[in-house]
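hey so u asked for the seq, here:
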Amino acid sequence: MTNIAKGLEGVLFTETKLTFINGTEGILTHLGIPIQEWAENSTFEELSLALLDGKLPTASELAAFDADLRANRAVPAELLDIIKAYPKGIHPMQALRTAVSHLALYDKQAEDTSDTARRAISVRLIAQMSTLIAAINRTQQGEEPVAPRADLTHAGNFLYMLKGTEPTPEQSRLFDIALVLHVDHGMNASTFTAIATASTLSDQYSTAVSAIGALKGPLHGGANEAVMDMLDEIGTPDRAADFINAKLDAKEKVMGVGHRVYKYFDPRSRVLRDYAAHVAEKEGKSHYYQILEVIEKTVVDRLSSKGIYPNVDFYSGTVYSDLGIQKEYFTPIFALARISGWCASVNEYERDNRLLRPDAVYSGAEGAHYIQIQDRK
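ran it, structure tokens below
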């Protein structure tokens, strides 16, 4: 009997030097360096460049890359007019998917699939993704987009474009850490989708649009939004244990808990937990964090023996919420960070490209013949 790897679980289709995950021990590394060290010592800009080039950059290389990002943050005015005309009330991931596709129309290199072009377009996509998301957010609220500033970090500039006010250094750094934790995560659904598109020798913008489409699904990118819905439903910390126990007794899913790969604590969740506590106290919204503490204890007590623990989505939503970001924009922010991983993975795969063409086990009818429509019952 043929064994079918449902969801492609356990199927190896390529090699990578970018990201390593050991789900049993809760290990995540980029270029062999633990995610905890990246979060503590690095920045979104540095990790993005490290993944694109497959090595830690020198100071001069990082400075040049950072300058390149800052110089490419603005998007065409015509595209901003199109974004303003989007229907009100649409999901921001719909808008982002469409805006990135539109962005390709203004790039003269868009159809060039050479290594040089893919690298250059990657820089522009990383730089402009935040501008698009901030513009979508503001125009959906009936406000004018805020032009990017070249004197702010990538994280700080995004918060500035979102709110129209300059964030504090601490807010910028906290958001930067959240981006670092989301930059890349192996062969997840959106990264695999981007690679599958690139394997046909399609262009870099098409790979990004494909990845956004995959990320849009609630089984991939929308979990932190669902966590916030759950926290609002619970309301207060004293109701959390009973709420979660009732869900578990009914065999219902608890959002932000469990992971396809990790059978121990997601290492990113451990980093975010500490920052979530700090931000919650700083911003005066500690009740969310207090609810999460109760949920985590309840879940670990009941499910840790099954290898089920909180994942990165468990705490990320509270960090974003406490920074004043609407929950509908949590998934677009995921894309804001992951665009670097998508581009790096696509560029790596394309250096030894092979068209992805899996097969399926046929389980349908055999020996059938066409029946004229008038004779069908």
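The beta strands are 19-22, 27-30, 33-34. Residues 16-218+327-350 form a domain with the Citrate Synthase; domain 1 fold (CATH 1.10.580.10).
lmk if thats what u needed
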